[in-house]
Amino acid sequence: ALAEFRQYLYSAIEAKGRMDHFEFRMKRKDGTIFATEHSVLSLANVQSSRSGWVSVVRDITERKQAEEKLKESNSRLEFAMQSANIAWWEMDITTGLVTFEKRKAEMLGYAPEKFNHYKDFMALVHPADKEKAMDAMRKHIDGSLEKYEVEYRILNNSGEYKWFYDIGAIVKRDSTGKPLNVTGLVIDISERKQAEEEKRASEELFKHVFEDANVGKSITTPGGEINVNKAFCNLLGYQPEELQNKNQKDITHPDDIELTQNEMNKLINGEVQQVRFTKRYLHKNGSVVWTDIS
Q: Model-level pTM?
């Protein structure tokens, strides 16, 4: 290390008569190693030949420790962003030119070199989402919206649309307050959107199976509140809205209330996976309706 320092020092002095901000590790009297920064200026005598040099040495241990902590923090942030499919971007409002983390392009399966201008990205946005995205940016730049925020579909290199969530804000203005730069984050939310669609489809299927069934069906909470289908209403002679504020006990024959609660408790307590029993309901006209519950 000392030979390296000497070589760098002599070559710098020969070339320009000085050496600036050279970092070098030194050893204290107690043997501990610490980081230093050196600036050296060559001295010349009246004959203009080198007579020596002046060296300024700074202990930069604290700066190095801070740099290392920042490096560790950035590594953790990068790992988190990579794991969550997040990438940063920045746009020059005047020119439309963009700079961005390469992951933004890679999430779409493209090389980063494909994108230089915001229009390069907009060309891939789904036609139904393009104006929505453009309008969100215009309104943020003109001050109508506090931030730029939008969800849109964008075409990947495989010909499939992915869902992106984009959020950003103006970070730089000129002396007159005119916006110059917008920076933000883009997040791949395709998995969330797919889960939402599957949930919606499942709910639609359940709604169809439940509401349109030819047999009476009810959903009962542990407290006895009920949600019933049309066939159940017809069975007891009620209109759907008439049963909205009724409890299970209100339409059950008094002699079968305890039986019903005992069977429900078996399910609630996990003693069984399903129950089947016969019980009596009370029709709106007061008559008894015998049913098979399962």
A: 0.58
